[in-house]
Amino acid sequence: MRSHTSTSTYSSLSGSESSEPAVRRLIRHSSLETINTNVTSADEFVWVDSHNRLVELQQLPWTHHDVLRLLQNGRTREHVDEVAMETIPRLSYLLQRALVRIAREIQRLSRPLGLCSKYEVYSAFKIVLCPALADSCTKACLRAAAMFAVSGDQIKQSKASRSGLQLPVGRFFRWMSDVKLGRMIHEYAAIYLAAGMENLLEEILLQCLPTEPHTTLTASMLEHAIANSGDLWGLLQPYAHLNAGRIACGALAMPRWASVSSLNSSNSSKSGRETSTTLPVAALVESSLLTTCVGSMAELLDLIGKVSHTGGSSLPLTNKALNALFYYMRCSQLEHGERGGPAIQELSYERAYVVLPPLVEWLRVATAHADHRHSLILDHDDINQAARLLLPGVDCPVRSITFDEITLSKRIDDLEYIRRLSLDMAFKMMISGRAELISQACAFLPTTKHNTVNDNGFTALMLACIVANETAVTALLDAGADPNVESPLPLANSNSTIPTINPTITTAVLTTSSPGQKIPSYSYGNNSNSIQSCFNPETQHWTALTYTALLGHCSIARILLERGAGVEGGAKLSEDKCTVTPLQAASATGNHEMVALLLAHGAQPFLSTLMKDSFCYSGAAQRGCYSAISVATAHGQRGCLRQLLSNPLNFSAKRGEREEVLSLEEILAEGNSNTGQYQSNIQQQSLDGRSGRKEEKEPVFNKNQNKALHEAMYHSAESNHLDITMELRGFNVMWSLHCWIHSLSTAHEMRKDTVIDQLLHDFLQVRPDDYSNQFVQECLPLLFNIFRYSKREDTILLLGDIFSTCFGWEPIKPIRDTTLSSGSRIDPKFVNNPELSDVQFRVEGKVFYGHKIVLVTSSPRFRNMLSSKLCEGNPPIVQINDIRYHIF
C-alpha cells in the first residue's frame, strides 16, 4: 500500500492541498484531452522495481558467437566495423528481454489447445511489437519458412541453413520445449521465432547506428539510442509490463507505421510525428491517440469517435469493453475537476500505476488479440489482456476456448445475428451434459445436428473434450455425436491460412476537401465487412481424439476409442492430409499412459503426415507433421521413444504394408557376420546403458522404418538431445555427416568425454570420400579444437588416427614454391637470339645476345653498367673475362 505522502502521479484526495504537486505535474491540454505524465522522482519506480521485473533467462537459445556471426553475415554486415566488441554482449542481453515478452504471449496463446504453432508466434509479435517491427518480423518469418519448405536434402543441412538463418533453429526448438511454450511445439513455430528474433536484432542495431561517419557504436551509445526510441525503449526495459508509447524521459511517442516509414530508416517516431502535425486533422487524431487519462465515459467515446471517423474505422468495442477501458483510463481528479464544487474525499488510493499507456497502445494490443481469433469486435477480455500487458501488477486468466461474446454489430445483419445467438445457445445446451437439453438443442441446429461445427471450427464434442467434461462427452456420444468429425479447413477466400502481413494499425492516405492536401488516417485491424472464418488453419483435420490426446485426458480418450473414434484421427493411409495424429500429439507431451492406450488400439508410430511439396513456395502453407518417432525425439521424450520402438505391431505383417524386396547388396549385408559383430559392438557402446539388455533380441526394422529412424536422429541431433541420438545409434541407425558433427559438437560443449570417444570411433562410418565443404569448414575445425583442449590420452590417439586417415600416414612432403618471382620475363625463343637484341656479351670470344629491359629490371648493377661508358658500340658490347661461356 502506497503511503499518503507518495509522489505518485495521482493522489487519493482530489482537490485537496496535498494533491496540488500532483496536479501541477498533470499537464493537461484542454482542447486535446491529453495527459502528459512525466516521471519526476526516483521513488516512482520503487514498487515496480521490487515486485514486477522480467525473468532473467539462465539459458539462451543463442550465444555471443551466434550474434556476431549474424551481424557479419546479415543485413548489418556493411556496418559491422562500426560496432564495438563490447556492444555484442549487451545486444544479446537486451534481446533476451524481448524474447521473454514474446515467449510469454506465445505461452498464453498456446495454453487453451496446448499447440504452439507458427500462428501463435505470429500473433505474439503483433501483440508485443510496434506495427513497423511486427511487420518486418512477419516478413522475415515468411521468408525463412518459404526457404525451409523448398530446401533440398533435409538431413544433410541444419534447419538454420535450410531457412537461411544465422541463429540456430534447433536450439530455439529445444528452448521452446524446455520452457513449455506449448505441450507440442511445431517445427515451423521454432523457425518463425528464430527468424523474428534475428530480424529484431538487426532492426535494433540499424536504428541505433550513429549518424556521424567513422563513429563506433559502443554499449553506452546503444543504451542512449534505445532510450530515445519510442519503439524500443519500453520493449527492452527490465520491467514485466510493456511500458510502450514512451521514451526514457517519460515523453509520449507515437509508434512508427509500417506503411509510412521504411524499417531501415533511422528516423524516429518523433520526427515522423512532427511532419504529421503540420496537418490540423492529423494533429487531432494523434493527440487523441496519445491520451492517457479520461474523466468520463463521454470523453472516452469522443476520443474513440475521433479516431474512428477521421479517415479510418476501428474495430467496434462492445459495451463491456468500453466499461473495462474506462475503468483502466479513468482519472478521479479529472472527473471531479470537471464537475467543480468542493473537494471529494476518495475512500481508496489511486492504483499504483507510475505512468499510464496512451490510447493508441490500448487499441493496438486489444486489436491484436481480436485478430488472433479472427474477430470483428473488441470485447472486454481483449481490454483485460491489454491491461495485463501494459500495466504493472495486473493479471487476468487466459482466454477460454469456449469464451465468445455474441454482440450486435453494424457489420452483421439481423439474420446473421440470430444465427449466432441460436448456435451459441445450442452449444451451451449440448456442453451442459444433460440429455434433455441436448435433445432440445437440435431445434436450434442445422441438418448436421450434434455434429455441427461452430464458427471457431469445433463441434460440441470437441469442446467437451477440450474442457475435460467427461459427462458431456458421454452424453453427446449417447445422443449420436460422431467422434470422427474433423475440424474444417479455412475458407479458400479467407486469409486465415496465411498470416496477414498488414500491421495491426495501418495508415492510409485520404484526400480531404482542400485540394492537394492529404492526411494520415489510422485504422485498426481488418476492415472487411464480410463474415470471416475463424477456423484455425493449424488444427485442420483434427478430431476430438486429437485434441484429447494433446491435452492428456486419458479417460476421455478411452471413451472415444471405445465408441469408434479413429485412432489416427483425421489421417488416412489412402489420403494425403496435412494434419497431426493423436499419437504424434501424445508423443510430444510425453504422456506414457496416452501413448500406451493409442498403441494398444493400433496407432502407427512410423506414420508421417508431412507433405513434401517442393513446388509450394508459401511459408505459411500447412505441411503436416513428422512421424511420432521424430516428434518424440525432437521434444526429448526418451521414454515415449522406447514405448514406440518396442511396440510389437511395428514388426507385424498386419500393418498393411507391402513386403519389401531386398537388393543383392542388402542380402549380402545381412549375411555378413563381421558387419553383425561390428553392429553389436556399437550397440554396447551406446549411452543408454543397453549392456544390461545384451541378451535380448534387438528389433529389426524394414527399409522405410530405418529411413524414419534416420529422420528421427536428425531431429534429436538438431535439438541437442544427445542421449536420444546415441540411443538411436544403438539401433544401428547410420550416421549422416551433419548429425555426427552436431552430436560431436554438443558432446564437446557438455564435456562428455566418453561420448566423444564413441563418436570418434564412428568416424569411418561418416567420413565423406570427397571431403565436402561441410567436412572441411565444420568438421576439421571442430576436431582440431577438441585436440587442443582434450587431456585424455584415448581421445588424442583417436584424433591422431583420424588426422592420419585424412592427411595420410606418410610425412607431408615440402611443397615447392612454383610462384614466379617478380621481374620481367620474355619468351624463351628470344633468349640468346640476335633478333630484337639490344645488348651483347662477349665471353671467351663468343657472343651472347641479351635484352636491356630484362637486365635493367633484374639488377641495379646492370642498370649502372649499361648506362655508363663501359659499354661501347651500338648495340653495346660487354666484355666478360672471368667465366666460362657454358657457365655464363
Beta-strand percentage range: under 5%
Name given to the CATH homologous superfamily of the domain at 414-491 and 533-647? Ankyrin repeat-containing domain
Shape: globular
Radius of gyration: 36 Å
Q: Total strand count, please? A: 11
Largest sheet: 3 strands, mixed
Number of helices: 38
The second-level CATH architecture of the domain at 414-491 and 533-647 is Alpha Horseshoe
Averaged pLDDT, please?
A: 77
Gap from first CA to last CA? 105 Å
Named CATH topology of the domain at 414-491 and 533-647: Serine Threonine Protein Phosphatase 5, Tetratricopeptide repeat
Going by helix content, strand content and strand pairing, the class is mainly alpha
**Top CATH class of the domain at 414-491 and 533-647:** Mainly Alpha
Helix content: 40-55%
Low-pLDDT residue spans: 1-50, 258-278, 492-532, 653-695
List the helices and strands and how they pair.
Elements: E1 13-14, H1 20-25, E2 27-29, E3 34-36, H2 46-51, H3 64-73, H4 87-110, E4 115-116, H5 118-128, H6 131-149, H7 159-163, H8 169-178, E5 184-185, H9 187-208, H10 219-227, H11 269-276, H12 280-289, H13 297-309, H14 319-329, H15 332-339, E6 344-345, H16 359-372, H17 380-390, H18 414-431, H19 435-441, H20 460-466, H21 470-478, E7 505-511, E8 518-524, H22 544-551, H23 554-562, H24 582-589, H25 592-600, H26 628-634, H27 638-645, H28 664-670, H29 673-684, H30 703-718, H31 722-730, H32 737-750, H33 753-761, H34 763-766, H35 773-789, H36 793-807, E9 839-843, E10 846-850, H37 852-858, H38 860-867, E11 877-880
Produce a short descriptive summary.
This protein is mainly alpha-helical. It is built from 38 helices and eleven strands. Among the domains are: 64-245, Histone, subunit A, CATH 1.10.20; 283-335 and 349-399, Orthogonal Bundle (Helicase, Ruva Protein, domain 3); 414-491 and 533-647, Serine Threonine Protein Phosphatase 5, Tetratricopeptide repeat; 735-807; 828-880, Potassium Channel Kv1.1, Chain A.
